[in-house]
């Protein structure tokens, strides 16, 4: 396991840019991974190389052919990484933009009078798109309420509101506010048991960095990620769409291929950077297991990441060494509860008597980077039912360390001690 191998932790950290310092701030601990994970050094190098190329992919010249090969390889790598034996991958402006495109296409092709179903825990990337396009297409929207205390929505919750006329369903894989992961496969089965032809689209943006992806097992039609949250760079999103969704009438150029979804010249550097991410997972899987086959290594890496991040989260909540955990601090409330096995690499807290932006500022002054989530259009669906105006999001990844957790706990203890004084 990663936590028992200090040399491996050092090797992991060495592969990421700015792992322990910020070029603007200096030394710092990075617990803002849900806002954007650290970037692989290989991604930085790959992006720089491709940014300098003037050639368009696919042109009949060596550079054009090479960049097209890069794109084709990346799509094959994505299929391996996400375990997708069919369908296609495409790049867009962002994960959010791609979710809007997929949801729009499903809504405008839905039968007249059909329904759209989604849950109240979802990020507005899916909720906003589904409600907007359901209204435009004359469809009714069905909201599945989540459990406020656990931050979860279950297959049973969906099943209770499913009807055969549901044409589109949206699912959140993991919440960027509470950190809770949902059982996508179970929810998908519950949906298809009632509406087998329903188009199912999943927001995987928060989940992708924290565990395994297995699209073949989900029985869905669309899945989107934001590469900057899974060790790549900003400026693009990646979506997978099923053969069925690919073939639906959608925005495309006149006389363009019927299943073509991408517009304009592709950024080969963005695709190449995704191949770097997949290669990193393969490398890590080889370090934590004896596996030699590529997919087996990726799966081993996902298991190791999940186990190690659970170890770090448990230390943050329950304490480490002589430092009390968050659950032991009188003025600290842990969003979605202390013991919640669905939590993935993220703990959100509220400190009674101190506005969350002030807590974030105090931590930042000590070189600990966290983030405020406010009860706004991004996070109000989670925070408002809890009576919270805001919270502090502490989000980690597998390159974080136990000493970093300890430093954070010491800083939070000092902030709480000033409250109690």
UniProtKB/TrEMBL annotation:
**Gene from which this protein is expressed:** csd_6
Identify the keywords attached in UniProt to this record, alphabetized.
Pyridoxal phosphate, Transferase
Query: What name does UniProt use for this protein?
Result: Putative cysteine desulfurase
Quick check: keyword rRNA-binding in the entry?
A: no
Q: What is its EC number?
A: 2.8.1.7
From which source organism is this entry? Answer: Roseibium album
Answer whether the UniProt record assigns the keyword Coiled coil to this protein.
no
SUPFAM superfamilies the record matches: PLP-dependent transferases (SSF53383)
Q: Which GO terms describe its molecular function?
A: cysteine desulfurase activity
Q: Which domain of life is it from?
A: Bacteria
Domain Aminotransferase class V residue range list: 29-245, 325-407
